[in-house]
Each structure stands twice: as structure tokens, then as C-alpha cells.
């Protein structure tokens, strides 16, 4: 791997449950079930939908249709692409398409929690002080969960990784790793499927960014 290439961090799906457990086990100064569900949901939506941190931060309850198992993310809530005059269009994504995470059940529990309802915010990830978590606070939560769970983190350059290196965008890389390399349905998953899930501008972007997963 050349020095110019970006090093990606990612986990296997076997590490998701320890992260979920950590959301409910780690000590919190301001403890509540709803807040613990929020932190668990941050992990699950990050790896289920493959969203970027800013996109996770912008999710709203009104975007979800739980009875249909879908979420629609409008163009303005997605990443703005450089050198483009047009924002990406809205996209509707199926929740938990591989059936691993119980995303819909977790969302229902969280939205019905007293802590979330007391926030009186449409944003999925509020904080105690604001309608939305900051990207820094989201990163801190993910890192804290990884360290508390002492999960095994991989690096795309093969070098050893520490749990403290795990961050929200690594959840997106973890989904790609699963779809391109670890899935038992690998033969049925095309590069275009990964491109559509991650919403890259073109499949060539997916191929370039995740070439190391395909070469394993």
C-alpha cells in the first residue's frame, strides 16, 4: 500500500454485539435507558445504513417508516459532493436488509423511550443540551464503546489497530467489508450493490476506495 492511500479501520460483524453490550454496560455520569439505546442505535444505524457521521447526525424520526422497514434520506441531508452544482437526490433505503441487527425493533424501543420523548426533537441523535449531537460527541461515543468492549479493529494496511482508533466512519467501512468480503451471500452481492448502499457518485469510486477488500 502506498503512502498516499487512506488507511481504513473496520470490524467484523462478530464485534457488533460487544459494542451493543458496551452501550448498556459502560459507566455514564448521566444514566438512562434511553441514552444507552441512543448509543446502541448509533452503532447499528452506522453499520446498517453505511452513513457518514454528518448524515447520521442529520437523521430525523420523520424520515423513517418503520411499518415499511424503510428510511428516506433527502438530498440536503446527504453529503454535498465537491465540484457539483447539484445536491444528490433523496434516497430510500431498506432497514436491516441482511437481517443481522434488529434495527426496526431497536428504533421502536428508542423512539418510545422516556429519555427520547423528553428531548422533544425530531432528530434521532439529540444530546442532553441540544437537538443534535455534534460529530465530535458521536466520535467520542463510538470510541468509548470500542475501548470499553475491547473490540478487535482491523486496518486496511494490515498493521495492528487499537480499539481507540474506531470511529463512526469506520462503521461505514465495516459494512463494505461485510458486503465485499465476509458475507455468505458474496456471490450475489455486486460492486454496484455496495455503491448503491453507500451512495457513491459512481461504481468506480467504490472500486477505488475499497479495492483492498476485493483483493483479499
Model description:
The chain is mostly helical and 216 residues long. It has one domain: Intergrase catalytic core (hpI Integrase, Chain A, Orthogonal Bundle), CATH 1.10.443.10. Helices cover 44% and strands 6% of the residues. The protein is built from ten helices and five strands, in the order βαααβββαααβαααα. It has helices at 16-25, 33-49, 53-57, 103-111, 114-119, 135-149, 168-182, 191-198, 203-209, 211-214, and strands at residues 9-10, 64-65, 70-73, 91-94, 154-155. Helix 1 packs antiparallel against helix 2 (33-49), helix 2 (33-49) runs antiparallel to helix 4 and helix 2 packs across helix 7 (168-182). The two termini are 13 Å apart. The model is unreliable at 80-86 (pLDDT under 50).
Give me the Rg, rounded.
Answer: 17 Å
CATH topology, which one? hpI Integrase, Chain A
Quick one: CATH superfamily?
Intergrase catalytic core
| Count of structural domains | 1
The proportion of strand residues reads 5-15%
- What structural class is derived from the secondary structure elements? mainly alpha
Number of strands: 5
CATH class: Mainly Alpha
Q: Whole-number average pLDDT?
A: 86
First-residue to last-residue Cα separation = 13 Å
Largest sheet: 3 strands, antiparallel
Q: What CATH architecture label applies?
A: Orthogonal Bundle
What strand order characterises the main sheet? Answer: 2-3-4
Helix content: 40-55%
- Give the ordered list of helices and strands: EHHHEEEHHHEHHHH
Q: Count of helical segments? A: 10
Q: What's the overall geometry?
A: globular
Q: What low-confidence regions span 5 or more consecutive residues with pLDDT below 50?
A: 80-86
Protein name: Tyrosine-type recombinase/integrase
Pfam families: Phage_integrase
GO molecular function: DNA binding
Keywords: DNA integration, DNA recombination, DNA-binding
Amino acid at each position: 500500500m502506498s503512502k498516499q492511500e487512506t488507511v481504513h479501520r473496520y470490524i467484523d460483524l462478530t464485534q457488533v454485539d460487544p459494542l451493543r453490550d458496551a452501550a448498556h454496560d459502560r459507566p455514564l455520569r448521566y444514566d438512562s435507558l434511553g441514552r444507552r439505546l441512543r448509543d446502541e442505535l448509533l452503532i447499528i444505524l452506522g453499520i446498517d445504513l453505511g452513513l457518514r457521521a454528518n448524515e447520521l447526525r442529520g437523521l430525523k424520526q420523520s424520515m423513517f417508516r418503520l411499518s415499511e422497514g424503510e428510511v428516506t434520506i433527502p438530498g440536503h441531508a446527504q453529503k454535498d459532493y465537491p465540484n457539483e452544482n447539484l445536491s444528490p437526490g433523496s434516497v430510500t433505503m431498506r432497514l436491516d436488509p441482511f437481517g443481522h441487527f434488529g434495527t426496526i425493533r431497536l428504533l421502536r424501543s428508542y423512539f418510545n423511550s422516556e429519555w427520547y420523548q423528553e428531548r422533544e426533537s425530531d432528530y434521532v441523535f439529540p444530546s442532553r443540551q441540544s437537538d443534535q449531537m455534534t460529530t465530535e460527541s458521536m466520535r467520542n461515543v463510538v470510541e468509548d464503546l470500542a475501548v470499553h468492549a475491547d473490540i478487535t479493529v482491523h486496518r486496511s494496511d494490515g498493521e495492528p489497530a487499537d480499539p481507540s482508533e474506531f470511529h463512526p466512519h469506520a462503521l461505514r467501512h465495516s459494512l463494505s467489508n461485510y458486503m465485499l468480503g465476509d458475507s455468505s451471500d458474496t456471490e450475489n452481492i455486486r460492486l454496484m450493490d455496495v455503491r448503491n448502499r453507500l451512495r457513491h457518485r459512481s461504481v468506480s469510486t467504490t472500486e477505488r476506495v475499497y479495492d483492498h477488500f476485493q483483493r483479499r
